[in-house]
Amino acid sequence: MRRGWGVPAFAALLLLLAGAAAPAHADFVVAPDVVVYCEPTLRPTLADIAEHWRRTSGVPVHLFSSPTPAMLEQISHRARADLIIGEGEANADDAAGRGIIKPETRHDLWRNRLVVAARGDGESATGDLKTLIGTGPIAIVDPSVGLAGADGRQALTALGLWPEVEGHAAGVIDTADAVFLLHEHKATLAVVYATDVATTPALRVAAPLPEDDYPPIRYWVAEAHNVLSPQTAAFAAFLLQAPAQDVARADGLEVLP
Hints:
Low-confidence stretches: 1-28
CATH class of the largest domain: Alpha Beta
Order of helices and strands: HEHEHEHEEHEHHEHEHEEHHE
């Protein structure tokens, strides 16, 4: 035996090595805190729901937000996640096929809609959408970057308005940036989600975009495959209950059956 290593120390080393070879989750104890990834436009709604849940259950919820494809990539590279709230059937199927979510835990949650927003201070022009277009810069998500932009372009193209909108467009990364430009008077209008307007009192809906002119915006919830928190299923169930659904409706979402 190497000099300086007594029997107790050597035995402790053997136990340590044996523990390292054991399955990672055998005796792994984690806090009950639930880690949730969600679409950025849902963050204010989920923050309110999470606070309600914390007050009733005592269990904190930690929110991280990014567009669904980006969050799936993060989680596929072993980012800690218990619950995923994503957008779109194709993304849900992709997540299931790649083993990122547990398909049997997936439920449809809410539907969102696209609107053309204006400031609510009375300074913005009023009228129908064709009249509004051309009154000033329009903040819209770059269609190559996000679904809000691609879907907005599709709806405006169906209305025959896209060429004119494109000539006045201020491209942004997401609808939060569009809201910022509108709030800072750097845009007259913005193509955003109904939730953006509902959670921003300074804005109003200038005109809705026809629902039949772009794909439905639907959100789903599912447990991550690498779920750790023992409270994950309970919080997922809470999202389907009346207190959470009431918050969602107040924030401009349609509750799906």
